[in-house]
Amino acid sequence: xxxxxxxxxxxxxxxxxxxxxxxxxxxxxxxxxxxxxxxxxxxxxxxxxxxxxxxxxxxxxxxxxxxxxxxxxxxxxxxxxxxxxxxxxxxxxxxxxxxxxxxxxxxxxxxxxxxxxxxxxxxxxxxxxxxxxxxxxxxxxxxxxxxxxxxxxxxxxxxxxxxxxxxxxxxxxxxxxxxxxxxxxxxxxxxxxxxxxxxxxxxxxxxxxxxxxxxxxxxxxxxxxxxxxxxxxxxxxxxxxxxxxxxxxxxxxxxxxxxxxxxxxxxxxxxxxxxxxxxxxxxxxxxxxxxxxxxxxxxxxxxxxxxxxxxxxxxxxxxxxxxxxxxxxxxxxxxxxxxxxxxxxxxxxxxxxxxxxxxxxxxxxxxxxxxxxxxxxxxxxxxxxxxxxxxxxxxxxxxxxxxxxxxxxxxxxxxxxxxxxxxxxxxxxxxxxxxxxxxxxxxxxxxxxxxxxxxxxxxxxxxxxxxxxxxxxxxxxxxxxxxxxxxxxxxxxxxxxxxxxxxxxxxxxxxxxxxxxxxxxxxxxxxxxxxxxxxxxxxxxxxxxxxxxxxxxxxxxxxxxxxxxxxxxxxxxxxxxxxxxxxxxxxxxxxxxxxxxxxxxxxxxxxxxxxxxxxxxxxxxxxxxxxxxxxxxxxxxxxxxxxxxxxxxxxxxxxxxxxxxxxxxxxxxxxxxxxxxxxxxxxxxxxxxxxxxxxxxxxxxxxxxxxxxxxxxxxxxxxxxxxxxxxxxxxxxxxxxxxxxxxxxxxxxxxxx
Length: 753
Ligand code: MOS
Fold this sequence. Notes:
The chain is of the alpha+beta class. Helices cover 24% and strands 24% of the residues. It contains 16 helices and 27 strands. Strands 3-5-1-12-9-10-11 form a 7-stranded mixed beta sheet, sandwiched between helices. Strands 7-15-14-13-8 form a 5-stranded mixed beta sheet, with helices on both faces. The longest helix is centred in the last third of the chain and has 26 residues, at 503-528. The N and C termini lie far apart (63 Å). Bound molecules: dioxothiomolybdenum(VI) ion. The site of dioxothiomolybdenum(VI) ion (MOS) has 11 residues, from loops.
């Protein structure tokens, strides 16, 4: 395949629609007769509803319906994924029990949003309160293992202690974070005949379709989910959340379209969060820096009504070459809503811990942190000895360090200054699995000159519309300006969840294959067509580009795709293709195409697929007020084929900014007495703003991956955040001599009085 378009730093094809306000988001679908739903949510954290009085609300102006546990239809709960939950299993409004603060207790549907809000204020709830489970530390004795995270053991954990001289044994913690997309979760549910149409920003229209069908016990074919644009998701728009279920239930009951748009405050209670993570890590190294032991015990919190496992226990066993490794992970039940995956779920947390330990080890060994990582580089997957599909991590360290100017770093803390500010340089490794899953796509070429590519999956803001057009152009030989990509609809070909950075790697090959079939058909027509200037040529003599077939030896001998079609009386050519990643079985395909998770994990039978990288940061610390500013970041990643350098770089930059939030600002604070979140607004839950964004130099090392998939691409949506919090914490240590082992690194932890 020629790669005229792939790799080009093209602008987003959907950029103009977005900046001119023409892209329609979930809450913006204007349907005739649309009514509005607003939830009243629990003010207690654990207990039950003794009484709920909705009589005044029901009589308030504009009110059409009030749903509580007393009159709500009883619904089916959703099947769980093999390794995770399908969002929150608890549907809400099914009984009088309260499991978390912010749980739905009533839903008012009214003619306008304002009527609904007013009616809500008239509802009286009497609660019986229990003492909630809210402290990870206090509940640690009740931690329990799950089948999703069995103990991993390699070598002997005792050997590491015996042979080694340098040991670090510490505890690291990350806190509850919320996804905070610009676009709050929302949906419009519209029952038309026996068809239920759900407009909602979604990372997974097919999972949503399947979930809604199961909940209401209706055929899947009767549910259509539409999601052409998503205003940021980060994990929080993957599953069917209760508000979506209740919009559907209300629409079914009223036979009118119902909109429920979560308010920013409800974004903290109603669509998941990154759970607490707590790591007890022990690392030991020989005097030459070689790791001899890694011992990892970790805990996540989950809700009291389901087991949700964030993948915080995976990385320790495969990141470095270490003969003796033990990894154990347990869950702790707390009275919160269901936690869920959040960007780089698992790695964002665990790499803070692991890469902090490595920095502590390097300091104790008096060794350069990059050198320590080079020494322990895993040339093959340490879990099974298999080769990597590609891994240019050493080049990431070398080239990243060079661009950063790392060789000028003095290893001693507090040795670098800029006026009154302490300067610190820190680094960390980054990695993220190259997940893939069974996928499909279709392409249509019309004789009128338009080519259309369809695939069910989603544009989360990552650039998939653009990248799929690039792939389609190169594979078909058609002109990119005349290719339109359609996404985000259960009527389009089946695709997996747009999560775990898998869209380009999974769906890209399907787009490529169906587009290549278009080209094949066109070439075949040309060869057999007496009126074509290419008649009688050999297939191998032909090439296609920009919508023309031409002779490789003489590009002037050419003909337009559309002319060939017209002469052959073809109004449209249509092709469909599927991609099954290496190792995917027919059962995986059927499961995945039915709207269940069927991920192909990065450990394939004979090789392992990961994105690797290195991130280098500079911080400047004003010790007098405890303020840390990130002033410079250099990142280097190996992602296989760079599909679109501009968009890929944007993904990495966005990830790094996400990481700055995780490192320095973001924490959803739980009231230690009541268990309620206290900072449920963007004013109080701090995310980075433009003034927090430093100079960033993000680049990709040259890397070719012939194994991962036919386009050689590994996902880039999440790896950018990974390692950033550790690099910042390591830089803060280098600046101040103070090791901070619990995120976020807010001023009171840095301040030295
Ligand atoms: Mo991502 S947290 O897998 O959407």
